[in-house]
Design a protein that fits this description.
Distance between the termini of chain B: 46 Å
CATH architecture of the largest domain in chain A: 3-Layer(aba) Sandwich
Helix content of chain B: over 70%
Shape of chain B: globular
Radius of gyration of chain B: 18 Å
CATH class of the largest domain in chain A: Alpha Beta
Strand content of chain B: under 5%
Strand content of chain A: 25-35%
Distance between the termini of chain A: 25 Å
CATH superfamily of chain B: ABC transporter involved in vitamin B12 uptake, BtuC
Structural class of chain B: mainly alpha
CATH topology of the largest domain in chain A: Rossmann fold
CATH class of chain B: Mainly Alpha
Number of domains of chain A: 2
Structural class of chain A: alpha/beta
Largest sheet of chain B: none
Largest sheet of chain A: 6 strands, mixed
CATH superfamily of the largest domain in chain A: P-loop containing nucleotide triphosphate hydrolases
Oligomer: heterodimer
Number of helices of chain B: 11
Radius of gyration of chain A: 18 Å
Number of helices of chain A: 6
CATH architecture of chain B: Orthogonal Bundle
Order of helices and strands of chain B: HHHHHHHHHHH
Chain lengths: 250, 260
């Protein structure tokens, strides 16, 4: 493993109940780099992410993590029972950090007005920003975001992606992001990994600067952070941008 | 008269205090079925204790801890849902225990006492055991409070942040098992889960933070205990049902305050 790597995974496979969830995946996570993981439902994106963080043991392959690596994790959902009385402030205070720091990060993620609200009462966008804030609390070397824009409306998504890019620029952390929808992969993404159990293809995304559909959908500001990834392989895509077929021959 | 009641009162107070926070976790983690399964199977410990002529406190404790460990190892992905599994084990355990007790020696066992509890019969030994167990559970919860609450929100997130999730999960299950074993003689196998979840549920309407809810649950459990014991003493009611009834009345009143 090179000294620059945050996480280096080689030939990682996860097999559960005779079902291959992740097949022979190589992933390199470096400081300051944003890696997006895309793929259809059930492609093993979350499984791969959890394996990289060490929550799941790989069946095969090796994963090297930089010693004392601090990971900020934004899970897909919380699933909090409504009987648990907890405010956003209390949620953010769970890791041992100063209140000043919480206030500062709450300001950055624009959740200061909802610090006193119950966690279960938040809207989709508010919850995602609160989760992002929690992920940032421990000064992560690596941010792992599992579908950060889910439940967020289109304008909110563009803002959220801008926020993530800004944070990367500011603290220089590596970012691993699961995205469900190809069209929302950011322009600032340094590498895209297309997963469908195995890694179909990976590489730099191409910017779509003036595509009329993008301008129409997201407006001028959003366009600056939106990009589409052009595949170099013979994949087919459904209208939603999901990969419907991957060629194994390459 | 009062001296006679001192031991049961203090044993009951300990039970009420510790069941507050433990009950909160049962509610937050939706484990009431788990609690029932433990409590019902704990009766098996009575049958084993009588048959093997060993102290029933010991046999009940061992059975509870064993079942908690077995349940914590149960895999989620089965063709039968977790809920159904617990339902089968819970009622299966109850039936099997009753069969075993009948076979063991029905004359020797106060079955009614084990099913519905007899707090007023608490002995000095019961008090000492309760004290030891409350201390163990209390220290475990106090020490790991923030991590345990974090686990109720998202176990993966907790683990990424350095919480030993698997270990604490087993610790929590063992705490519930230990408390169940202790509470068995006092409030009865059928009502233990009620004593855990009803005060916690009643506390929800007044609490703003997890720790507030735990403390309030303890206070509500204490109030239920005192009201139940008074009713039990003056009207010669079974203590366990009287305490749980009192808790239910407090719960019903708390709902008036609850925000929809």
């Amino acid at each position: 493993m090179s000294p620059k790597h945050l996480i280096e995974a080689r030939a990682v496979s996860v097999i559960r109940d005779k079902k291959t969830l992740v097949d022979n995946a190589d992933v390199d996570l470096l400081p300051g780099k944003i890696v997006s993981l895309i793929g259809p439902n059930g492609a093993g994106k979350t499984t791969l992410v959890k394996t990289l963080m060490g929550l799941i043991n790989p069946s095969q392959g090796s994963i090297n993590r930089r010693p004392n690596l601090t990971v900020g994790y934004m899970p897909q959902k919380l699933n909090v029972d409504s009987s648990l009385p907890i405010t956003v402030q209390a949620f953010l205070s769970m890791p041992a950090v100063s209140q000043t720091k919480i206030a500062q990060l709450a300001e950055k993620t624009e959740i200061t007005p909802i610090l006193g609200s119950a966690l279960q009462s938040l809207s989709g966008g508010e919850l995602q920003r609160a989760l992002l804030c929690r992920a940032l609390i421990r000064d992560p070397d690596l941010l792992v975001l599992d579908e950060p824009a889910q439940g967020v409306d289109v304008n909110g998504q563009a803002e959220l992606y801008q926020l993530i890019t800004g944070i990367r620029d500011e603290i220089g952390c590596g970012v691993l992001m699961v995205s469900h929808d190809l069209h929302f992969v950011m322009a600032a993404t340094d590498e895209v990994i297309c997963l469908n159990q195995h890694i179909c293809c990976h590489g730099h995304p191409e910017k779509v600067s003036n595509h009329p559909e993008y301008l129409q959908l997201f407006g001028q500001t959003a366009n600056a952070t939106m990009a589409v990834y052009t595949h170099h392989h013979d994949h087919q895509h459904s209208v939603h941008g999901d990969v419907s077929h991957c060629d194994h021959s390459h | 008269m009062l001296e006679l009641l001192m031991v049961p009162i203090f044993t009951g107070l300990l039970l009420a205090i510790i069941s507050g926070p433990v009950g909160c976790f049962v509610v937050w983690r939706r484990m009431s079925q788990f609690g029932d399964t433990l409590a019902h199977s704990a009766l098996l410990g009575v049958a084993i204790g009588i048959s093997a002529s060993i102290n029933t406190n010991v046999s009940i404790g061992l059975v509870c801890l064993t079942i908690a460990l077995l349940l914590s190892g149960v895999k989620q992905n089965s063709d039968i849902s977790n809920d159904t599994w617990l339902g089968v084990l819970s009622h299966g355990g109850l039936a099997l225990s009753l069969v075993c007790i009948s076979l063991a020696d029905s004359n020797q066992i106060d079955l009614y006492g084990y099913l519905f509890g007899d707090l007023l019969a608490a002995s000095w030994q019961d008090f000492e055991l309760m004290l030891a167990c409350s201390l163990i559970i209390g220290i475990f919860l106090w020490w790991n409070w923030s991590s345990l609450v974090s686990m109720c929100l998202n176990e993966d997130l907790a683990q990424v942040e350095g919480v030993s999730v698997a270990l604490l999960r087993v610790g929590l299950m063992l705490s519930i098992a230990l408390l169940t074993a202790m509470a068995m003689k006092l409030v009865g196998a059928l009502l233990i889960t009620a004593l855990l979840i009803i005060p916690a549920a009643a506390a929800r309407a007044f609490a703003q933070t997890p720790s507030q809810m735990a403390i309030l649950a303890s206070l509500i459990a204490i109030a239920s205990l005192i009201l139940g014991m008074i009713a039990s003493y003056f009207w010669d009611l079974a203590t366990g049902p009287a305490i749980v009834t009192a808790a239910c009345i407090i719960f019903a009143l708390s709902r008036r305050r609850a925000t929809p």
